[in-house]
Amino acid sequence: MKWVGGAVAIVLAGLVAFQNCQPAPHPDDLLNSGQKSTESESKIELQGQKISGVNFLFTESEKVSRNSGTYDVLVNKSMKVSLPSGEIILGTDLDSKTSRFCLTETLTTELINILKMAQICKKPAPPAGTLCTMAIQLPYAEIVTEKETFALGGASDGCGSNSSDLCDEQSTILQGFIASVKANYKSFECAQ
């Protein structure tokens, strides 16, 4: 009789342990629940949206002195550009200090024009059954509107799921603008 009770306990434990082995559905599958995405659903116009700022996210090498030594370290930085003023607040993950810089009027206008002409394209979900690595890709920029924040170039896995970026050549244009600002931001003094 003890054998039967033990066998029943093992079978029940096995059923409970393996009842959730089915792969979880992709979040997009839950949201769309049978709807086919269309081209218009995957593009977002920025022209009609009120853009309050753009955050540029990047890594930069810095010399750090600690424990009687000097080290070259890669530091994550966030450059928050307020629009339409062009004021830049630069922060790092190294400490809580921030620095203030200002884009020139010409650069501020250029950035606003890049964003006004742009559309955000959302990458479609990978086909069902696709195996993806868990490597998260961080965005290179975030566009902040009054309703929502759009992360550009980031992805939730190695297949690029849940990623969005500016459509067509607009992504390249914005990344070129960001590279120029990153190279020269220390010279962008604010008028008093």
Quick tags:
single chain, 192 residues, alpha+beta, six-stranded antiparallel beta sheet, three-stranded antiparallel beta sheet, 9 strands, flat
Quick summary of this structure?
By secondary structure, the chain is an alpha+beta fold. Helix content is 27%, strand content 31%.
Write the SSE topology.
Layout: H1 2-18, H2 27-32, E1 43-45, E2 51-66, E3 69-82, E4 87-92, E5 98-102, H3 105-117, E6 119-122, E7 141-145, E8 149-152, E9 164-166, H4 170-184
Antiparallel strand pairs: 1-6, 2-3, 2-7, 3-4, 4-5, 6-9, 7-8
Mean pLDDT: 80
Question: Which quaternary structure do these chains form?
Answer: single chain
Envelope shape: flat
User: Helical segment tally?
Assistant: 4
Task: Kindly estimate the percentage of residues that lie in beta strands according to DSSP.
Answer: 25-35%
What does it look like?
- The chain is of the alpha+beta class and 192 residues long.
- It has one domain (39-62, 71-186).
- The chain has 4 helices and 9 strands.
- The strands form 2 sheets. A 6-stranded antiparallel beta sheet has the order 5-4-3-2-7-8, with no helix packed on it. The protein has a 3-stranded antiparallel beta sheet with strand order 1-6-9.
- Helix 3 (105-117) runs antiparallel to helix 4.
- The protein is flat.
- The termini are far apart.
